[in-house]
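so my prof wants the structure for this chain in the tokens format not the other one, which i didnt know existed until like an hour ago. anyway here's the sequence
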Amino acid sequence: MSDELVDVRLALAASAKAESLPTRAQILARIAASLLGSYAFVWGLTSLGIALGVGAGMSYREAQTLLFLLAFLVFLACFCWAFVAARLARVWAVLAFGGALMTVAAWLLSHALV
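here's what i got, hopefully its the right format
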């Protein structure tokens, strides 16, 4: 009876381990979220930051340089976060929706400044 119990425990452990491994589709979705979502988020952040900088009195070139330097660090943080976050839907929601929201806000602000 103890041999059967050991076999059952090994089978349960193997099935739990197999269920926790990500599939190819999940890996590709994480890669897409890390690259495309991070790019969209950084695009929105950069455009909004430049618009805010110009609105605050900075020259366009100074605001652009400052935000491009910051964009590299933000992209790296978003890229890494996309792989360690527990839920992929949250990653897409934050990165894609946040990027779109900041881009629209930058567009509205730039038209208000002109």
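also thought this was worth mentioning. The radius of gyration is 22 Å.
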